């Protein structure tokens, strides 16, 4: 393993060079360690490694060189001490919550969280005595007002899915820390290339590695990033015992994805801005949501705390669900799927897919209407993406 990480390296260099998992065979590309367990020279050595007296690999549920390389590289890119890789993005959220909260605790969350996250809090954690209050992600006063004596965590997704609302991470960190709570930020949409929440005061960062970290829609995975205490000790301890771990093969795929992350994110941003500008000029479109547009309500905030505006564009068509579904059904090249962060452009109707399992009242509060469409802009020629969407608008 090449453990040298220069703190002066930029995100692109870290994505290529940090924590290179080189073995004694001196391979140039990352090795893939497909093994469930590891052997020892003696019973004494096995005992020493199991008790932590001697470093070493034990079992791939919690010690695997390929997974560890991905963890160290992502931690370096986020500017963190520790990272725990998990089986999915939802497994990362679950691991963080179970590691840091207990019965009787309360958290404040943005009401625009991903639908599965809201279901996890409302339908699972509520059964074990953990309560949640949901607020407008951009309303700092609402976050402060929702704080209770038993509030232990603030959890925000910024930009959010699918409306791309932006939350002020530094202001939320101040609110959380004044209350003795932690701030967790879902950084899935921007990745450490475009946003570094820990530098803005956040305590934990959540990733769905399935999305942009992979970048080609191949594998499912997640990660929790943060300090050595909350992540390196608490979240790792939960993952080791409960087992929602990332597979070595998936970790190898994500390692390769990180090598091109900087290039891909810049290309996604460039194409998404062009698409948003085109959509805004179309008479069949009622409204466009993209932080890169000057009329986005948090455009200036996005410019301050981000290095780019991301690859997600949402818009409302005139005519409600019927018009939205007709437009989606008319595309020929763009993939109709709820996943995002792919080289391939995808399109979905959030009210009936990603947020279809939450209540109509919750969708209304989050601003997710029946006419809303979300496009995750891929790496095809932008002219071809626009032409395909134009076909949908004609429908």
Question: Which helices and strands appear, and what pairs or packs with what?
Answer:
Blueprint: H1 11-17, H2 43-50, H3 65-78, E1 82-86, H4 89-100, E2 106-110, H5 115-124, E3 131-135, H6 140-146, E4 151-157, H7 169-178, E5 182-186, H8 191-194, E6 204-208, E7 222-226, H9 230-242, H10 248-259, H11 261-280, E8 285-289, H12 299-305, E9 312-317, H13 320-330, E10 335-336, E11 346-348, H14 360-366, E12 372-376, H15 382-394
Parallel strand pairs: 2-3, 2-4, 4-5, 5-6, 10-11
Antiparallel strand pairs: 1-7, 6-7, 8-9, 9-12, 11-12
Helix pairs in contact: 1-3, 1-10, 3-10, 4-9, 13-15
Structural summary, described in words:
This protein has helices spanning 11-17, 43-50, 65-78, 89-100, 115-124, 140-146, 169-178, 191-194, 230-242, 248-259, 261-280, 299-305, 320-330, 360-366, 382-394, and strands at 82-86, 106-110, 131-135, 151-157, 182-186, 204-208, 222-226, 285-289, 312-317, 335-336, 346-348, 372-376. With 395 residues, the chain is an alpha/beta fold. It has 2 domains: 11-259, 3-Layer(aba) Sandwich (Aspartate Aminotransferase, domain 2), CATH 3.40.640; 262-394, Aspartate Aminotransferase, domain 1. The strands form 2 sheets. A 7-stranded mixed β-sheet has the order 1-7-6-5-4-2-3, with helices on both faces. The longest helix has 20 residues, at 261-280. The protein is globular and about 75 Å long. The N and C termini lie far apart (55 Å).
